[in-house]
Design a protein that fits this description.
Number of strands: 36
Structural class: alpha+beta
Radius of gyration: 34 Å
Length: 833
């Protein structure tokens, strides 16, 4: 651990490859693997001797093992347990079973093995601190899982940095800080991120982000297998039985992916790639013939296969730019990160479809790790983790800003135990490039401020020297510091809108409501609030079965009061009767305050002023997405989608395109990772809901006109002036609503039509309702039975005589006001209303 009080090491924990960098003399240095590579494959294996391997060794084992498996067409022939691409399941309850160790690994545990191996290469397994990069679109649960992985790897403290921000930091220190808008195009093995930054005077501020956590180079590999390599084999070998078996086809695809990945890499620098396998490496076909590959893939063949994935990335970039009202020519730089960005075809597509200003000056494979290390050099190690000063060493604190846009900076130097300090001490700071040093500044009680001069646009490293009155050096606990000149990184933004689910009694479902102050792209830390919500269940002190539930969701984009299930569920805040000292009646007003820290961890303060209750809860963002339960979720999405499409179709709306998408997703279920599939279904349901929203006017005015026509026909033989006046009034309201296409006004008109129908039948309807309450009194729940009985008796007297409509509705409302709405409480499940 460096003794300047900073973390000083950063890691790019990738889906396919990972890398670590450390700060040496103010410069981020990539630590090479045992095979002298800048990156290591993010693969973990356990061999028969129960030894865990990471990186190239595990990758080699994977390559030989999948070939052995195809020879026997059985995964049972595998001699090692090999795990890869587990970053895609971070934050979930998915596990990976090791037959050798007879245990299940979580994604965090496997990631910890990568972290341990890289840290060992860097000589950094000291139980200290580290900065780890994460995709910009990682949610709070995935971030929590990443921190947990670092803890499992032995680190006492881990901080996170978004991958695009890390890349931008590395780029800024390598090539200079050109003012304007930068677009970081981060296309990794398993995820894609696009981040828009505004750079001005060296200050980098993330403006907006977009991305897809399930789009990466591995998807291109499988596409090359399915569309080029596998069809080639089918033309030369009998594979019908193999392809009919999900297990055998899966083994074959895994084996062919190794060849596809190599061909993809080769096509980045050559016009064609040769794929040759040894005879028998891939087992035998249905007729016993040994399968071998001998084919050439040209760029002309591969580019149409790659194009849909590249198009998806450019579409995401254009969406991001459109949202921020930017043209491609307004981007100062497009910074490339990740292996797939080596593709000349992708680079040309970016120039044509996103911006001509594509910059290829940084290494796409190491930019994130270097940027993470640079950022780490600005982050303080927590006080409780700092090394205890050696005996005879003067404990010193240094306070300063680690990033600066000016050429001067101020360092506060303070001796912790001034009683132990020699009298007449002086302080001197020396810039380690030898080009600048301060004078000998007398140390003052309480601390001394030293102004230093910074070299422009570089990492400045300084040595701190204390001398006693005789000019002898005094050994101090902290004797160096680093300041990055020409750059300042603003706080990371919220990657999503944060909201919560409330009960919508009209639609009988959870509806999404945003927290004010937790909008997407606001800088972290942040604070959000929600006012005016009410409890739907009574909280009884001491009773755990009385619950107030606040489901927390995140959303890229949202429509207020749209179904909450369209968005990503983070976790629930649960408050039960054991959390309160007083009874909280249903209908009590609640205020919710949320504090989100720099790592997106959230603390909830729930205030119920009516009963003077304040409950504080930390949001539990530990892994909760259970892959085993996804099938049930997917079936629910399918059912909801079919029902919504049917409603739209019944209303005369063309839903064929959405129906085709739904059927296509069902068809490809077995080939898609379940969380990715969950995301795709939610995107589809959002589009269905958007169509519902876009056609709301068209559908509701059709209902209004249909019911109005029925009302006019039914009452055509009536000629009362009051009736005609009411119909005329409703018609006027309809015309007014049409003029403004006012959906809410049309909803009110529908209710007025229903009320009008009730008015026409009030003389028979009201007595029937009162008598129904009388007959079913004992089967109903009342807030006050004695008073309810009394009001029903009074109502019976009124309706048995000649009564006016106003009198009838008055007594009926008095009865209904005493009904206990247990059905609403049951359905609402403790949600706020």
């Amino acid at each position: 651990m460096d003794n300047n009080g900073k973390i000083n090491r950063g890691m790019d924990l990738g889906t396919t490859n990972s890398a670590i960098a450390v700060m040496e003399h103010g410069v981020p240095v990539i630590i090479k693997s045992s095979t002298q590579k800048d990156t290591v494959p993010s693969i973990v294996s356990v061999n028969r001797k129960r030894v865990i391997h990471v990186g190239d060794t595990a990758a080699n084992e994977l390559a030989s093992q999948v070939l052995r498996a195809t020879k026997a067409w059985s995964g049972d022939k595998m001699t090692s347990d090999i795990f890869k691409e587990f970053k895609r399941t971070m934050g979930s309850l998915v596990t990976y079973h090791s037959k050798v160790l007879k245990k299940d690994f979580t994604s965090q545990e496997l990631s910890a093995e990568i972290i341990k191996a890289l840290s060992a290469n860097a000589g950094a397994n000291d139980g200290g601190s580290i900065v780890i990069s994460v995709p910009a679109k990682f949610d709070a649960t995935q971030k929590t899982a990443t921190v947990e992985a670092a803890r499992l790897a032995g680190f006492s403290h881990a901080e996170l940095i978004q991958e695009p921000i890390a890349a931008a930091v590395a780029y800024g220190m390598t090539t200079g800080q050109d003012n304007g808008f930068w677009l970081v195009f981060d296309f990794g093995g398993g995820t894609f991120d696009a981040a828009l930054l505004r750079v001005e005077g060296g200050v980098q501020q993330v403006v907006d982000t977009e991305g897809d956590s399930f789009l990466g180079g591995k998807d291109i590999d499988y596409a090359l297998v399915d569309q080029l390599i596998l069809p080639h084999l089918k033309n030369h070998f009998k594979l019908d039985a193999i392809c009919a078996s999900d297990k055998k086809l899966g083994l074959l695809r895994e084996a062919l992916k190794i060849y596809a990945e190599k061909a993809k890499v080769d096509l980045s620098t050559a016009a064609s790639a040769e794929i040759l396998s040894d005879l028998g490496d891939l087992g035998c076909d249905d007729e016993g013939n040994e399968i071998e590959i001998d084919m050439t893939i040209t760029r002309e063949m591969a580019h149409p296969v790659m194009e849909p994935f590249f198009k998806r990335t450019t579409e995401i970039c254009r969406k991001l730019m459109k949202r921020n009202r930017l043209q491609g020519s307004q981007l100062t730089k497009v910074i490339l990160v990740g292996g797939p960005t080596f593709s000349p075809y992708l680079r040309q597509m970016l120039k044509e479809e996103v911006s001509p200003n594509v910059d290829t000056s940084v290494d796409p494979m190491t930019a994130v790790a270097k940027g993470a290390a640079l950022y780490a050099a600005t982050r303080d190690i927590p006080e409780h983790l700092k090394a205890v000063a050696e005996s005879g060493t003067l404990p010193v604190e240094l306070h300063y800003e680690s990033m600066a846009t000016g050429l001067n900076a101020f360092i506060a130097v303070k001796v912790k135990d001034e009683a132990a300090a020699p009298s007449g001490m002086t302080v001197q700071l020396v810039r380690n490039d030898g080009a600048w040093r301060s004078g000998l500044i007398p140390y003052e009680t309480g601390g001394t401020i030293v102004e230093v001069v910074l070299a422009e646009h570089t990492v400045n490293n300084f040595t701190v020297r204390f001398q006693d009155a005789r000019g002898r050096l005094v050994k101090i606990s902290t004797d160096n510091l680093t300041i990055i000149q020409g750059m300042q990184v603003s706080a990371a933004p919220l990657p999503y809108h944060i909201g919560f689910g409330v009960w919508d009694p009209d639609m009988k479902r959870q509806a999404y409501v945003p927290f004010t102050g937790l909008e997407k792209n606001l800088p972290l830390p942040a604070m959000g609030t929600a006012f005016g919500r009410k409890t739907t269940m009574t909280l009884v002190p001491g009773r755990e079965d009385t619950i107030l539930k606040i489901p927390v969701y995140q959303a890229d984009e949202y429509t207020p009061f749209s179904p909450a299930t369209l968005y990503e569920h983070v976790a629930d805040v649960l408050i039960n009767g054991k959390d309160v000292a007083h009874e909280v009646p249903a209908g009590s007003e609640v205020t919710v305050q949320v504090e989100a820290d720099s790592s997106e961890m959230m603390k909830f303060t729930v205030t119920i002023p009516g009963v003077d209750e304040v409950v504080v809860k930390q949001l539990d963002t530990s892994p909760h997405f259970d892959d085993d339960g996804t099938d049930e979720l997917i079936e629910g999405y399918i059912k909801s989608g079919i029902q919504s499409l049917k409603r739209l179709s019944d209303d005369g709306i063309n839903v064929q395109a959405l129906k085709t998408r739904l059927l296509a997703l069902r068809h490809h279920r077995s080939y898609m990772e379940k969380k990715a599939l969950d995301k795709k279904y939610k995107e589809l349901l959002q589009d269905i809901y958007q169509l519902e929203s876009d056609t709301a006017w068209e559908r509701i005015i059709r209902k209004v006109e249909k019911r109005m026509a029925g009302l006019a026909i039914k009452n055509a033989d009536r000629n009362q002036a009051a009736l005609m006046a009411s119909l005329s009034y409703i018609n006027d309201c309809i015309e007014s609503a049409k003029a403004n296409k006012d959906v809410d006004a049309a909803k009110k008109i529908l209710q007025e039509i229903e009320d009008f129908k009730d008015l026409l039948a009030w003389r028979t309807m009201i007595p029937a309702a009162v008598r129904w309450y009388d007959r079913n009194f004992d089967d109903l729940e009342w807030t006050n039975e004695e008073r309810a009985k009394q009001r029903i008796e009074e109502a019976l007297e009124v309706v048995n005589d000649d009564f006016t409509m106003e009198e009838g509705y008055y007594v009926l409302r008095r009865i209904r006001s005493l009904r206990k709405n247990t059905e609403y409480v049951r359905e609402a499940e403790g949600l706020l209303g």
